Amino acid sequence: MNINKKMFNVGKVINTHGIRGEVKVLRITDFEERFAEGRQLYWTGEDQTDPVTLVVDGHRRHKNFDLLHFEGYDSINDVEKLKNGMLKVTEDQLTPLEEGEFYYHEIIGCGVHLSSGEHLGVIKEILSPGANDVWVVQRKGQKDLLIPYIEDVVKEINIDNSKVVIEPMEGLLD
């Protein structure tokens, strides 16, 4: 079953949990409903060319992880092969966002410019350490720049043109 659609990561299977087929998942989504019972996810692993369709039939939080159980995967032997794989959703499963909200995949790859027009680099990663996200900007010949995603710094986001305009706080570019 080859799904010829754009897919997005929503979690990484870290390990198995117990002997009844649960897996421990590191969440890569802000949408908890992705893991609700009855939801369809797609699993891909290193050697997996076609995604495997999984249907969630159990979900709970444990420490900082999501524990998921899938229909038809009732023992540790069934889920052992899922370890280190990625859980994904298709583009048509994405939730519409409010104005001013963005998916990570829309931000990653955008060029970052100062309000003066100077190009600083390209966003290569988004970190979520706490109160606000931090955008990692890859610069040519320099170390990466960390931009806090706050109104005082990020002045404009234009997804259509893959462009972000910032007004750096004192010391941010040092």
From TrEMBL:
Residue stretches in coiled coil: none
Residues in PRC-barrel domain copies: 99-173
One GO BP: ribosomal small subunit biogenesis
Any one GO molecular-function label of the UniProt entry: ribosome binding
The entry's keywords: Chaperone, Cytoplasm, Ribosome biogenesis, rRNA processing
Assembly mode: Binds ribosomal protein uS19.
The protein, known as: Ribosome maturation factor RimM
Function of the protein: An accessory protein needed during the final step in the assembly of 30S ribosomal subunit, possibly for assembly of the head region. Essential for efficient processing of 16S rRNA. May be needed both before and after RbfA during the maturation of 16S rRNA. It has affinity for free ribosomal 30S subunits but not for 70S ribosomes.
Similarity comment text for this entry: Belongs to the RimM family.
Main location: cytoplasm
Pfam families: PRC (PF05239), RimM (PF01782)
InterPro entries in alphabetical order: PRC-brl_dom, PRC_barrel-like_sf, RimM, RimM_N, RimM_N_sf, Transl_B-barrel_sf
Gene Ontology cellular-component annotations: cytoplasm; ribosome
Subcellular location: Cytoplasm
Originating organism: Sediminibacillus albus
Domain characteristics, as noted in the entry: The PRC barrel domain binds ribosomal protein uS19.
Residues annotated as domain RimM N-terminal: 10-93
